[in-house]
Design brief:
single chain; alpha+beta; three-stranded mixed beta sheet; three-stranded antiparallel beta sheet; about 50% helix
């Protein structure tokens, strides 16, 4: 385990202790990202509503790691297999939305998605020849619209 990995491990351990969450932490690093995996029976407390807690934890870790190391390297946090399950759910949602758009010939709107979630849906939709996806709005009002290509 190199120095940066040890720093991330220590910061994550301290954060979980402050939150009163017990679990095991794994840290893996490549050139682009540092991946932090957390296994705990209190996963709901970390993940939060639609992953908002997970996103917040990830943001805090990114800031603290940068302050400690002086360099930016993206930290990605996963609790259990939440990201994988959510990604699979979103892919199915996108495919179902494509079917609905084709059948109804009308746009399908998805609200309350994080940038991570919108990106997954955009990637699925980009494989379709007759349907497209666009993000509209700003901030909390941002929505993803799936529609027939013009």
């Amino acid at each position: 385990m190199d120095d940066k990995t040890k720093i991330v491990q220590a910061i994550t351990t301290d954060l979980l202790d402050l939150m009163g969450v017990k679990g095991t932490i794994s840290v893996a690093e490549n050139e682009e990202t540092i991946k932090v995996g957390i296994e705990t029976e209190q996963s709901g407390a970390l993940i939060g509503y639609h992953g908002e807690g997970l996103i917040s934890l990830q943001l805090i870790l990114n800031i603290l790691v940068h302050k400690k190391t002086g360099s930016w390297q993206k930290v990605v946090v996963n609790v259990g297999d939440y990201r994988e399950k959510r990604e699979e759910y979103l892919k199915n949602l996108a495919q179902n939305a494509v079917l609905r758009v084709r059948e109804s010939q009308r746009p399908f709107i998805l609200n309350d998605l994080s940038s991570f979630e919108r990106r997954i849906i955009h990637m699925v939709i980009s494989e379709e020849k007759d349907v497209e996806s666009v993000s509209e709005g700003e901030g909390r009002e941002r929505k993803l619209v799936i529609r027939l290509r013009v």
